[in-house]
Amino acid sequence: MSTYLSLKTLPFWILHIACITVFFVDFSWGYVGLAIGMYYLRMFFVTGGYHRYFSHKTYQTSRWFQFFLAFMAETSSQKGVLWWAAHHRFHHKHSDEDIDLHSPKKGFWYAHIGWILDSKTEETEYKLINDFARFPELMWLNKYWILPPVLFAIVIFLLGGWAALVWGFVVSTVLLWHGTFTINSLSHRWGNRRYETTDTSKNNFILALVTLGEGWHNNHHHYQASTRNGFYWWEIDITFYVLKILSWVRLVKNLRPVPAHALNPKKD
Ligand SMILES: [Zn+2]
Ligand SMILES: [Zn+2]
Fold first, then answer.
1. Ligand found nearest the CA of 201
2. Gap from CA of 61 to ligand 1 centroid (Å)
């Protein structure tokens, strides 16, 4: 079967089709709020956990909070924590080269969802993520990544019934997939470039709102080691603000700043 349609990609498509059930369950604006709330809650763990912690190590935290970050990020149904971070590190190493998995040169849809559905990218490249692969609990979560989203769905169902499940899990998860994937597809196409990086990354205000700060993607490709992707106060970066608050209550520490030399566009 094709890259997009196989037995393994079936759950991905079934969840899309299941969005139609919004017409068969109760409607209230509260449910819409629930869908948006569960979208942004989990988007934070994708960006603050998968991306800024596990992929780039831009701050430090305790072992138990690291596990919590991984577990919550996995409720997004974007595969295992080590899989996600290893593939992302590969992207930075080879952005827009031929072997880059989600280079926009491979077409919009392949960069958006094709590379994830492709059986060629199924395995976790442990050698790219051995700093975190040494934790057995993360290896376990990576292997059984389906458990957090299933548990998340069950809890929502038990608390709110069918309508809550449809809005708070089904619709919210599908939106979260596409919101996250815009970083691979649109952020390398749509926006401005402050830094002449070797790839096609762009800065985009709208995508920064959709992804809690990841839309400052050109900044990020220019300097990956800082906790913030929005380099200036007007570059809204909610993930960074939340991490800053978490650092005040000492759940995370040593957030890495943007050094003055990295701000200068001419220094790339
Ligand atoms: Zn990155
Ligand atoms: Zn990129």
1. 2
2. 19
- So what's the pLDDT on residue 266? 59
pLDDT tens digit string along 104-122? 788 889 989 988 899 888 9
Give the Cβ contact number of residue 96 at 10 Å. Answer: 18
Which residues touch 62 (CB under 8 Å, ≥6 apart)?
251
Q: Which amino acid is at 45?
A: F
- Average pLDDT of the segment spanning 50-75: 98
Separation between Cα atoms, residue 4 and residue 18, nearest integer Å: 18
Distance in Å, CA 67 to ligand 1 centroid = 20
